Amino acid sequence: MPNLDSLLSFPTPGVGSSSGPTRTPIPPRSSHVLVTDTTDAPALFVLMHFLRASHAYNKTLRPGPDTASIKGKGKARTKVVWLGCTSEGIVHLKNVARKSGVHLDEETAQGTFKFIDAAAEVYEASGIESSAAALSIQGDASRTHTPFKRIYDQIARELTTTSHHDTQLLESEWGSRNLIIVDDLTALAWGADSIDAQGHVTNVGQQTSQWLGALTALATRNDASVVTLMHADATSSSKNGASDPVDECLLSSLLQTADVWVEVKELASGRARDCDGEITVHPLVRPSLAHTLAPSASHAQQHRNVPPLQAFAVETPCPTRAKAVLYRIAPDGQSAALGGATIGSNTGRVQVWPRGTGRGFL
């Protein structure tokens, strides 16, 4: 049965963009995957897809009683840095992940998962450390408030914990060594202070976009990728149109910088008994170029942290990329994607199919 791997997968080194069996759900390093959802069609299951992909990959590298350990020899594990920006905290995330077959306590103990409570940094920031102490996190004029800087620093520390040995091992691979999941950017922006130290109104959307730009630059330097979730109910992509300037500013900025846009929304006709919503995968700049430009010698000379264009060739089994596919989450896994734990296998009880068929299509 078709699943999220059918929609979200990337080629591995040395193969063509259409080689299905040799593709991976792990995003290429330096990539940015934007996920948008609505209140009636939450996209937490897409974030779980990437968490499970990391878990499944690491599971193949763990030493076994026989020769299983040989398979993972010479390869580095992936690490998920989960940035929780809502008040639900890690307890809710643990429950959802457990239904997906991932035990976060074990992942944390093995060093393959780290939860950062961004909501605490934003909402519990000390009054003494006001926005007057804002620091630049890039070498340019981009500046942000202290909570954003502290969140950035925490992520930077987590990325640098990977050993230099592992860095050398992944030089010939495209997959990310670290996955930074921002859950969710809308909540982070809503919690930011819109008044600076001088009492002037600030552009929160622009500040958040600049912070995310610095974060993606950090990811590129550390063989990582970024998966960002934001709510699109108040943007121009929703049926109600743009009603929040901050959200619209964020979406406009992200669509110019992201590599892949995974758009999850409710059915125009409302919720159906056998369908939870629709998904559209939009390949943006680099994925589109990967399908139109032939490989050149300059690709081999790129910085090692930036994979060649072929790594961003997203394959979607839709009749056209502009056409959404429908999805359904099984009744026994409403809050998560359940299922097996092998790379490229069923990502769980999230089924997808094209409009007008009512069934899978592979």
Automatic annotation (TrEMBL):
Residues 1-29 are annotated as: Disordered. Pfam families: ELP6. Pathway: tRNA modification; 5-methoxycarbonylmethyl-2-thiouridine-tRNA biosynthesis. Gene3D superfamilies: P-loop containing nucleotide triphosphate hydrolases (3.40.50.300). InterPro entries: ELP6 (IPR018627), P-loop_NTPase (IPR027417). Belongs to the ELP6 family. This is Uncharacterized protein. It comes from Pseudozyma antarctica.
